Amino acid sequence: MYYATTYPSPVGLLTLAADEENLVGLWIEGQKYYGGSIPETVTEKDEMPIFDTVKKWLDRYFAGKQPGISELALAPRGSDFRKSVWKILCEIPYGAVTTYGEIAKKMAQKAGKENLSAQAVGGAVSHNPISIIIPCHRVVGSSGSLTGYAGGIETKVKLLEWEGADMSRLFVPKKGMG
């Protein structure tokens, strides 16, 4: 059984989803793949310890603090490959960015392979079911392109600015590039 509640944030209304003990989803209203990892019916339930913990974490995050991801019980649903990519996302420091290619290199090393497709990594990143907390917004193209954010490029920019990321080499691609 899954439960949901909402959280009003500076980047829009967030929907939180959880099982009895773990956060399994966090989506920005209107984002691509909204609720996609939870095929079962979700019951509205605002009062749950996991939701209280996540909302306090988000309060601190949006207050400019740097709460640790490890403070939260997360259980994103996905393939082993996607979960491995999401684990690497959790290692990207607050206010920093990395590229899809860098994540692909780390994944290849872990798998004992020579290389791995950055596009495969991009697919896993874009299907991250716990936006903001699992920081997929910190992944950019190798050229500095701010591409591939299911919550929208404007939201990605806001979150990176919120974290004080160095935006000097980053750019929003022209239409049709991502």
In brief, what are we looking at here?
The chain is an alpha/beta fold and 178 residues long. It has helices at residues 49-62, 80-89, 100-111, 118-126, 153-162, and strands at 2-9, 12-18, 23-28, 42-44, 98-99, 139-140.
Verbal overview:
The chain is of the alpha/beta class. The protein folds into two domains: 2-71, Methylated DNA-protein cysteine methyltransferase domain (Double Stranded RNA Binding Domain, 2-Layer Sandwich); 80-162, Winged helix-like DNA-binding domain superfamily/Winged helix DNA-binding domain (Arc Repressor Mutant, subunit A), CATH 1.10.10. It is built from five helices and six strands; from the N terminus they run E-E-E-E-H-H-E-H-H-E-H. It has helices spanning 49-62, 80-89, 100-111, 118-126, 153-162, and strands at 2-9, 12-18, 23-28, 42-44, 98-99, 139-140. The strands form two sheets. A four-stranded mixed β-sheet has the order 3-2-1-4, with helices on one face. It is globular and about 45 Å long.
Please outline the helices and strands.
Blueprint lengths: L1 E8 L2 E7 L4 E6 L13 E3 L4 H14 L17 H10 L8 E2 H12 L6 H9 L12 E2 L12 H10 L16
Parallel strand pairs: 1-4, 5-6
Antiparallel strand pairs: 1-2, 2-3
